[in-house]
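Chapter summary example.
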Amino acid sequence: MTPDVAAAADRIRPHARRTPLWRTEVDGRPIVFKLEHLQLTGSFKLRGALNTLIAAGSPDRVVTASGGNHGLGVAKAAQLLGLHATVYVPVSAPEGKVRRIEAAGAKLIRHGETYAAAVLAARETPGFYVEAYNDPIVVAGQGTVAAEVVADAPDVDVIAVAVGGGGLAAGTALASGRPTIAVEPDRCCALHNALEAGEPVDSEVDSVAASALGATRVGEVPFEILRSHPVTSVLVSDPEILAARDRLWEEFRLAVEPAAAVPFAAWLAGRVPGDLACVVLCGANTDWTP
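The structure predicted for these 290 residues follows.
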């Protein structure tokens, strides 16, 4: 199935927020921020969840597993559509994300030390399972972020996004018609390793951004899209990520989670080409003190 971003945009438009773009300068260089952390759930994950549930005919019993943002997206999508959701999270899931999942009305179950363990338990639960990234309908929903960027800033010539399982990056590559810079922590880089190996492979997960980007293996669906589009894999270190996050707060009062600062870290380090880059700030579900 080829992801249909235009159909996804039509489905989610009544429910999701069209997030703003912000043109500014950093170190004398122009940059465009896509403020997706202002989405209803504080991350882009709501888009894919809404597209999936609506396309499936709004099944009454919904189940998923998540490290945080995806679970919150599914919980909120189910709430908006009047459905019942159960979300499995590993015991290590950040309290801020867990709290928001429960506030969105989902039944929350802590299970296992890892995301993979939570997935196995969730798949044994009756209900319609919502994939986090390895599904063309999810990818199409995430692609609506880039579709809005292109519509609102057609002069943007490259888009930089953070990568976990690959759904947002694949949707960006599919919808933007522009080079995609897929940025990962250097100790949490499932896509980078897959591109080197020629196929998805198990990867280490050890990063300050792991709660959002901690997929041990990139999804097969997004991987096939990413390797057939103009995508460049870039790595950044944890110190670079935290410095970028803090700079977003100090200079712009933008409070984002570490994962959202990953592409900005790459841009600051000069690893994002182009005359006018759009950096997607993909989430803000974290508790931290500047």
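To summarize the output: The domain at 5-43+135-280 is CATH 3.40.50.1100 (Rossmann fold).
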